[in-house]
Design brief:
single chain, alpha+beta, Tumour Suppressor Smad4, 2 domains, 10-stranded mixed beta sheet, 6-stranded antiparallel beta sheet, 6 helices, ATP-NAD_kinase_N, NAD+ kinase activity, NAD/diacylglycerol_kinase_sf, ATP-NAD_kinase_PpnK-typ_C
């Protein structure tokens, strides 16, 4: 039976220069806009040209017998990733998190187009290394990190995946009201929402919360556990603050909405992919069976 040749799927997001052109239509209009704010287009344009050069270089390393395609971040939710795909994320670390929830076992190689701008936690691979790593990836001849992901599952079967964290709260600055249950403990909350983070996410938003609250939880990227952090829980006669942070390994936590409207769930900062979380909806958040399979060498 015939099988499809491997496909290299290059994923990117718009550069600042492309976003300026999309907003202002022409280069000269973009230049004028920046100059009215005492900024120069040349630096933005130079970063764009460097990115285009790295992407071109990366695409030339794909074996001739392979297929390849390019997908922008805005199209992830409409693109069908196949089992034979090898995903190459060219951009900042967050791009890997953005694409991770649309994958199911595919290997991911992160290419850093600007080491002076991006930390390279998830995008560690130089373009020249792709010539060896791409064919090696389909023969299981690469080093992998299987990073734990977070899964949020609603009572009707809707679910959302995250590499960094899932946010549950109100879509505005109003208080989020819900009932939280962890094991046999439960209480009503009024807070600024909560996040459930993986070990990967523990270096981002979760780290900021830990620094601000002084509550520090150890969590490794490949550890089969997640941690929850409640943001600014308010104590009252009807709401508590006991369940404000904790590590979840063997089970998850359950959240029941007490918001008439405006309740929301989203993953990894992508609010456009949110799920409504209004009164009575019940959500369970726990480590996912899926992992991000990140090629490291």
């Amino acid at each position: 039976m015939a099988t499809n040749a491997p496909r290299a799927v290059f994923v990117t997001r718009e550069t600042d220069y492309e976003l300026l052109l999309a907003r202002h239509a022409t280069r000269e209009q973009a230049r004028f806009f920046l100059e009215t704010r005492s900024q120069q287009l040349a630096q933005v344009e130079a970063r764009h040209e460097r990115f285009v050069d790295v992407l071109r270089q990366a695409r030339t390393t794909v074996p001739s017998e392979w297929r390849q395609t390019l997908v922008r971040r805005a199209d992830f939710d409409r693109f069908l990733f196949g089992p034979e795909d090898v995903v190459v994320a060219v951009g900042q670390d967050g791009l890997v998190a953005n694409v991770a929830k649309y994958l199911d076992g595919q290997l991911v190689l992160g290419v850093n187009p600007a080491p002076d701008l991006y930390d390279g936690v998830l995008v560690r691979i130089a373009p020249e290394r792709l010539a060896r790593l791409l064919p090696a990836s389909v023969h299981d001849d690469v080093a992998l990190e299987r990073r734990t992901m977070v899964e949020a599952l609603l009572e009707n079967g809707e679910h959302i995946l995250a590499l960094n964290e899932v946010f549950v709260g109100h879509r505005s600055h109003q208080s989020a009201r819900y009932r939280i249950a962890v094991g046999s403990a439960e209480e009503n909350h009024s807070s600024s929402g909560l996040i459930v983070a993986s070990g990967t996410g523990a270096t981002g938003w979760a780290r900021s919360i830990m620094e601000a609250t002084g509550i520090h939880l150890s969590l490794e990227p490949q550890e089969k556990a997640v941690a929850y952090f409640v943001r600014e829980p308010f104590p009252s006669v009807a709401t508590g603050t006991t369940l404000r942070a904790g590590k979840l390994a063997d089970g998850g936590l359950t959240i029941t909405s007490r918001m008439n409207e405006g309740g929301t769930i989203f993953a990894d900062g992508m609010e456009q992919d949110r799920i409504a979380f209004d009164w009575g909806r019940r959500l369970t958040v726990a480590p996912s069976a899926r992992t991000l399979n990140l090629v490291t060498g």
